[in-house]
Design goal:
Helix content: 40-55%
Structural class: alpha/beta
Shape: globular
Strand order of the largest sheet: 1-4-5-6-7-8-9-10
Largest sheet: 8 strands, parallel, barrel
Oligomer: single chain
Order of helices and strands: HHHEEEHEHEHEHEHEHEHEHH
Length: about 270
């Protein structure tokens, strides 16, 4: 059983437990539930912004504790001030040290798109995402049968949420594409082996239909790599560990974005980035 299988198995148990503790009516009564969704798609493709979806992540199964003491309030505000387009907040507790409270805090202090980063297997989690104040959810193709992924995407869309579908090979992409998706992300980290290669993104960029916003995820630790990915056709770049491993993640994001803008200015086709 690989790590993704383990996470998904525990996620099904976790969801059943939470359903029994927090009824749907309570989720729907949240102050955030009827809030206006901020479009991840629009912010990520905005020519004045960096395209970076900056992630708040305390730990991961592959790296262990990355930053156990960071403040969601300070880091999320700092990310946006540094020039990020959007935020990604981990809400999985067992494997990533996150919580729904982290996302609620990020929402309270920022007007920008926020994606709930978790392993979604049930409509209940999408209602939870809305109640936390998320604007977008993640659906992982490797974790969901195509029919289930499409049904979850349609449910999220009915609540006004946007959907980022994550893939890491052409087979997952082709079997899971559906009209309700807004963004398609290529995870450069293989969730079964944890190997990371940006070549995964470069190999798939042309396969993603043009109507979806293209996002490259994981393993982007050098602004030059981001320039390469932007030139290849990506609009969005999900970066977490590279910022979070610093004692001041928001400063790391600021330095990275500043360098990316400097490099972009030297590339004629990217000078608007």
């Amino acid at each position: 059983m690989n790590i993704l299988d383990k996470i998904i198995a525990s996620k099904y148990r976790e969801v059943e437990e939470r359903k029994s503790l927090v009824p749907v009516k309570l989720l729907e009564s949240s102050v955030f539930f009827d809030g206006q969704v901020v479009s991840m798609k629009k912010y990520v493709t905005h020519p004045e912004k960096s395209g970076i979806i900056a992630e708040f992540k305390r730990k991961s199964p592959s790296k262990g504790v990355i930053n156990g003491s960071a403040s969601v309030e300070k880091v999320s505000i700092g990310y946006m001030q540094a020039g990020a387009s959007a935020l990604s907040v981990l809400t999985d507790k067992e494997y990533f040290g996150g919580s729904s409270e982290d996302l609620k805090i990020a929402r309270k202090f920022n007007f920008c798109p926020i994606i709930r980063k978790d392993f979604i297997v049930d409509e209940y989690q999408i209602l939870e995402a809305k109640s936390m104040g998320a604007d977008c959810i993640l659906l992982i193709a490797a974790a969901l049968e195509p029919a289930k992924l499409k049904a979850l995407a349609a449910f999220a869309k009915s609540l006004g949420l946007e959907i980022l579908m994550e893939v890491h090979d052409v087979e997952e992409l082709e079997r899971s594409l559906c009209p309700d998706l807004d963004l398609v992300g290529v995870n450069n980290r293989n969730l079964k082996t944890f190997e990371v290669s940006v070549d995964t993104s470069l190999a798939l960029v042309e396969q993603i239909p043009g109507e979806f916003v293209k996002v490259s995820e994981s393993g982007i630790s050098d602004p030059r790599t981001m320039v390469q990915l932007k030139k290849a056709g990506f609009d969005g770049f999900l970066i977490g560990e590279n910022f979070m491993k610093s004692s001041r993640p928001e400063q790391a994001a600021y330095n990275f974005i500043k360098e990316f803008k400097k490099l972009s200015a030297q590339e004629p086709e990217l000078s608007k980035a």
